[in-house]
Amino acid sequence: MCGIPVRLIRLGFIKNVQMKKRIALVGIYHESNTFNKRRTGYDDFENSHLLTGAAIVEQYEKAHHEIGGFIEALDKNAIELVPVFYAEATPGGMVCTDAYQRLKQELLQLLEAVLPVDAVLVVPHGAGVCETCPDMDGDWLQAVRKMVGPAIPVVGTLDPHANVSVQMIQQTTALIAYATNPHLDQRQTGIRAAQLLNRILLEGFSVKQELLQLPLSISIEQQHTNAEPCLSLYREVQEAAGAARATHVSIVLGFPYADVHEMGSAVIVIAGQGLDTTQLMTEINACFIKRLSQFRGEKLSPQRAIDQASQGEKPVLLLDMGDNVGGGSAGTSMFLMDLLEAAGATKAVICIHAPATVAALAGLGSGTRSVVALDALNVLNRAQPYRVTVLGHYKGHFREPDPRHGGQVQYNMGEVALLKTELGNLIVVTSLRVPPFSSRQLSCLGIELEGLNWIIAKGVNAPVAAYRDICPVMIQVNTPGETCADITLFDFKNRRRPLYPFETITGNETGNLPGI
User: Fold this and answer.
1) CA pair distance 183, 180, nearest whole angstrom
2) Are 312 and 290 within one domain?
3) 122 and 88 part of one domain
4) From CA 133, how far away is CA 167, in angstroms rounded?
5) pTM value surpassing 0.90
6) If DSSP codes are grouped into helix, strand and coil, which group holds residue 391?
7) In the chain, count of helices (H) and strands (E)?
8) Cα(432)–Cα(429) distance, rounded to whole angstroms?
9) Beta-carbon neighbour count of residue 428 at 10 Å?
10) What 3-state DSSP class applies to 66?
11) pLDDT: is 135 or 516 the higher one?
């Protein structure tokens, strides 16, 4: 008995400890834009979230994030969560090979140290691309599977902007995608995944997972789940899933800015092992194909958008789709502010990423006048320098306690310089890129948002959750850039064919249907 007193075993204390299931938690989370030539390095993960052990729980236990959902929903009487490794970086260019290999090695070393485990909870984004490993998420999931063995359940979550590969499905037991965009149900998705794992581990529930890769890519501005075409699409697909008695069906909208084979929209079906899902897959495929014409979206030009909003209620949120930081853009475009300034518009604000500019202004006190040239940041920016007044310098840390896209609570913009142009417009210059997922990105600098006329947010749907209570008018603007809404303008070399809107889809295509 290894020296354990028999009396303790009879009382049940040691038995309870031994019977508790151990669940490892690991993740590498990145949305990679292959059209952004600036690579994502290890330091980008360090500047965002690079956590091990108890620090993962400390960061996310109360957050509106899937890891918080895992922690909440696992049966604590029967399961012990073993947090191992989680790395996340702001969306950007492909992950450097050395950075990915280092992250993967750290994950596997730390996972090996806690083995054996009874299951693994995984947190991939689903659109991760390494410069020498296009299916980055499939690769590290395969490495996890190889380490723990084929019999261990591997369950996790996905961002609906994933490009789901066959390998991701083969190397996991079940993956569940968030069901909202903006992503406000990340914690709930973590809860659903953990509840499914509870059933698998504690009730012996046996599941199968199937992938339907659709012959289409839904335009980014058509991916708002509380508006058409997604609103009725989600409802119809879930009705079909319920009628077929599927355990869970995830619509994966896809990430169009990654030139990889699996780019495009997909559906993941999780069902009991004995359930025949052939008819369900056919029905789901039809739900998408009949909406093809709605998936391309309207492309509203910048000048038309500004003209349309000029006489409307303020403040207006201009969604700069071509420089969507949450989609991996550089965050350096002044395109919309340049147009507003040229039109004599006032009380506008924009946030740009320009570390060198922040450093150059660091020695200038509040009230100092200066000249900043921003044309070198981005070819879209006007050549004429801005004459500005420095309003202040800030440490760009802020918190977002409410549910917002991305589920994060802690944010860091690095060093920040706040500038005012001669027309009275505001330029927030940051040394670290942060997507506009929270209005506190601006209000933490003392900017009174309700008093503005124009707020330029570098996003598409995500900022809607942050600004819906502030801006009565929100307009998606088809600006040029690394995340331009019209993906047919990009030079894809690796995508699947045929794929709408690049090719015509006749309606006879069935996607990648199991058994068809």
Assistant:
1) 5
2) no
3) yes
4) 13
5) yes
6) strand
7) 16, 17
8) 9
9) 21
10) helix
11) 135
In a domain, 414, yes or no: yes
Whether 140 and 278 share a structural domain:
yes
Domain end residue (candidates: 238, 270, 294): 294
Mean predicted confidence (pLDDT) in 464-484: 97
Give the largest Cα separation in the chain, rounded.
85
Q: What's the rounded Cα separation, in Å, for the pair 100 and 312?
A: 47
pLDDT at residue number 516: 32
Enter the tokens of residue 132: 């020498």
What's the pLDDT score for residue 311? 87
Same domain, 224 and 364: no
Same domain as 94, residue 78: yes
Q: Reply yes or no on whether the pLDDT at 501 is more than 50.
A: yes
Cα 114 to Cα 439: distance, rounded to the nearest angstrom: 40
Question: How many Cα atoms occupy the beta-carbon half-sphere of 408 within 13 Å?
Answer: 22
Task: List helix spans (H) across 97-229.
Answer: 97-114, 136-148, 166-170, 186-203
Q: Quick one: which H or E segment has residue 251?
A: strand 248-252
Output 17 or 374, whichever has higher pLDDT: 374
Domain-embedded: residue 201: yes
The whole-angstrom separation of Cα 218 and Cα 461 is 13
pLDDT digits (tens, 9 = 90+) for 20-37: 999 999 999 999 999 999
The owner of tokens 């008093």 is: 451
Answer whether residue 5 is part of any domain.
Answer: no
Q: Span 417-426, mean pLDDT?
A: 98
Please say whether the beta carbons of 268 and 177 come within 8 A.
yes
DSSP 422: T
Residue 3 scores a pLDDT above 50: no
In this structure, the answer to whether residues 472 and 410 fall within a common structural domain is yes
Count how many domains the chain has: 2
Q: Are residues 306 and 286 in the same domain?
A: no
For residue 138, the one-letter residue type is G
Q: Tell me: the pLDDT tens digits for 161-184?
A: 999 999 999 999 999 999 999 999
Domain of residue 310 covers: 302-485
Nearest CA among 259, 102, 234, 117 for reference residue 178: 234
- In angstroms, the Cα distances linking 392 to 34, 353, 428 are 35, 16, 10
Parallel, antiparallel or unpaired: strands 119-122 and 49-52: unpaired
Q: Are 223 and 124 in contact (CB under 8 A)?
A: no
The whole-number pLDDT of residue 66 equals 98
Residue 437 corresponds to which amino acid?
Answer: F
Please indicate, yes or no, whether residues 431 and 387 belong to a single structural domain of this protein: yes
Tell me if residue 347 falls in helix, strand or coil. Answer: coil
Does 6 map to a domain? Answer: no
